[in-house]
Design brief:
The protein is mainly alpha-helical. It contains 28 helices and 5 strands. Keywords: Membrane, Transmembrane, Transmembrane helix.
Length: 629
């Protein structure tokens, strides 16, 4: 705790210096600023200009070059400081804001559709299960959606690159609409039809999730992407939170309206994308090593583009993840953990997942599969998977999904089974989650774009608040403290909101040219974590609540207790992250080491320059540049 207090104090001092600097900037006029730029970068004694091939030129103190083994600092030209003061009037700034608003307006309904499909049935779940006479299997209504929405993320990520954003986003919305229509008309005697519709909804939701975030990251700097992701997260979180409320009111009429409402949203969403984003969406990406002859006809172009998809990796990943989720869903509820029905898919799924990792390794140059299939692009580049910060970000988002889904679904059960609330009342109680999430999202945006313009602080603080929220929530559900329950729901939401945007920014900072892959990884972790959490909590709940849920309060309490180790493990893992600093000149810096522990012992980490659109993004390559400097 002393570390945390000390860190906050140091950040506060930094904010005072930043505030003073910005005040001085505002007092300058543009002519004086231009004169200062010429004087500072060309004539100031003791300064030199470091110019290394592949790196943007920036003035560096001679003393800094001598200390390059301990720390590498980059001095931003005064023009960038002046730009910060006058950017609001620049045409470029106006264009960037207009692009941001067009993207958010065009994607608002697709994001709303995806969020509603995730939570709108939370209040309707018991009633749907009763109508189908499948109360013991009600978790499948959630699990099959989460399973496909996680498993198909890498597939759509590759399709977005190979065939372009337009084709992908329209296809995914259409698939969601078809799935919603099937769920709406599913006869109560055919539970499998309902599950098939939910599976299709998940397939479409996966595409909307990853493609939407990729569209927001296209053609923008890391700073602009921070804004885009934060605002989209607020939109998604708003519909995520009101989903149970809307579902509760619709269920009082008929639960089928929870699915039917998606149909007009999907139609209007497609129309808006065509009208608003028609010229802004990125098309199919170039394929290296392909000649014009190979792309001379439409059929050849289609064949060549299909040949770049990593079908082997996609099949291994999809099969392995599906079997693992199947095993987790059956375990404890439908079958005992030591039964054949659980062990067989668990073992085979784990084996296929390990095989997928080996396959992706072989797909990286110059290994075997990359030589046998030279056109195919690995669905997940190996250099990404072996980077420590990326693996930690995946686990942080995994636990974020646990915190998000557990509150939305199991607190709804608490309000319905323990407090006896109606579906609409239970949905309204879940709204207490939203203020915390909104505050967390705003704090994350402020931390990354205004001060201290870093990714580590919101990730660290968000992990702590979610861990505290889940821990106290388990106790509060046991003693029945309603006010504490509502407060801890908000605190857990704060932790989720704090990590939504910075987690993606952190990954993109280290790999600026891997937008699709980073977006896919952070998007995959959330539903995967939610699926594991709900499966684990359902198993605990079924074992502790007794026949016919007679002791639902104890079952829900122990269900939340099962999450506590994951929440605090996330806090520990966060301390081993590096850090990313977002600069004023559309660039950023990264530090690979353990930022928290280095700060705790007073050691400075070397910073390395990155720019969105640069091609020298491998860890080894960037480290070489820093050593030369």
């Amino acid at each position: 705790m002393s570390f945390l207090v000390g860190y906050v104090i140091s950040l506060y001092k930094g904010s005072q210096e930043a505030s003073s600097r910005h005040t001085n900037i505002e007092d300058r006029n543009e002519a004086g600023a231009a004169y200062e730029l010429m004087h500072d970068t060309r004539h100031e004694p003791g300064r030199t200009t470091a110019n290394v091939s592949g790196v943007n030129t920036s003035p560096v103190d001679n003393d800094d070059i001598c200390d390059a083994q301990t720390t590498t600092r980059y001095t931003t030209p005064h023009t960038e400081e002046v730009k910060e003061g006058i950017e609001g009037r620049s045409p470029e700034s106006v264009k960037r804001r207009q692009h941001r608003y067009r993207v958010l307006f065009g994607l608002a309904l697709p994001f709303a559709l995806q969020s509603l499909d995730t939570t709108i049935i939370a209040s309707a779940l018991p009633f749907i299960a009763q109508d189908f006479e499948q109360v013991k299997q009600l978790n499948w209504i959630i699990s099959v959606f989460n399973m496909t929405s996680a498993a198909f993320l890498p597939f759509w990520a590759q399709i977005a690159d190979v065939f372009g954003r337009h084709v992908t986003i329209h296809s995914t919305i259409l698939i969601m609409a078809i799935g919603s229509a099937i769920c709406t008309g599913a006869p109560t005697s055919q539970f499998g039809v309902l599950l098939f519709g939910r599976a299709l909804q998940g397939v479409g939701a996966a595409g909307v999730n990853v493609t939407g975030h990729v569209i927001m990251a296209d053609r923008v700097s890391l700073e602009d992407f921070a804004w885009n992701w934060t605002l989209s997260a607020v939109i998604s979180a708003g519909f995520f939170g009101i989903g149970p409320v809307v579902g509760g009111h619709l269920t009082q009429v008929n639960w089928r309206w929870c699915f039917a409402i998606n149909l007009p949203i999907a139609v209007v969403g497609i129309v808006l994308i065509v009208i608003v984003l028609g010229k802004d969406l990125v098309g199919p990406q170039p394929i290296p090593g392909v000649t014009q002859v190979q792309m001379s006809t439409r059929a050849r172009r289609l064949w060549v583009r299909f040949s770049t998809v990593d079908f082997g990796g996609q099949l291994l990943f999809l099969s392995g993840l599906t079997l693992l989720i199947l095993a987790f869903t059956w375990a404890g509820g439908a079958y005992p953990w030591d039964s054949v029905q659980v062990l067989v898919p668990l073992i085979i799924g784990a084996g296929l997942t390990a095989t997928w990792l080996a396959y992706e390794y072989l797909m990286s140059p110059p290994h075997l599969m990359s030589r046998l299939l030279p056109l195919q692009k690995a669905m997940m580049p190996w250099e990404l998977l072996q980077q420590k910060n990326v693996r930690l970000i995946f686990f942080i988002n995994f636990t974020m999904g646990m915190a998000m889904f557990s509150v939305m679904y199991f607190m709804d059960l608490y309000f319905a089974l323990v407090l006896g609330s109606t579906p609409s009342e239970a949905g309204k109680n879940l709204l207490y989650y939203l203020p915390g999430l909104a505050v967390g999202a705003y704090m994350a945006q402020y931390a990354t774009n205004t001060w201290p313009r870093e990714t580590f602080p919101p990730l660290f603080l968000g992990s702590i608040t979610s861990a505290v929220g889940i821990t106290v929530l388990a106790w509060a559900t046991h003693v029945g403290e309603t006010s504490t329950i509502l407060g801890m729901m908000a605190l857990t939401g704060h932790g989720v909101g704090m990590r939504m945007s910075p987690s993606a920014l952190h990954g993109l900072a280290f790999f600026p040219d891997m937008t699709v892959q980073i977006t896919c990884l952070v998007s995959l972790a959330v539903p995967l974590g939610g699926t594991v959490a709900l499966t684990m909590m359902s198993t605990v709940f079924n074992n502790k609540s007794g026949p016919n849920n007679q002791d639902a309060k104890e079952g829900i309490m122990y269900a939340f207790v099962s999450l506590i180790p994951f929440m605090w493990l996330c806090v520990v893992c966060t301390t081993f992250l590096g850090n990313a600093w977002i600069l004023d000149d559309d660039g950023h810096e990264v530090a690979y080491g353990n930022y928290f522990w280095s700060w705790a012992v007073g050691a400075a980490l070397p910073r390395e320059r990155r720019d969105r659109g640069s091609h020298n993004t491998t860890e080894a390559g960037m480290r070489t540049v820093v050593r030369v400097l």
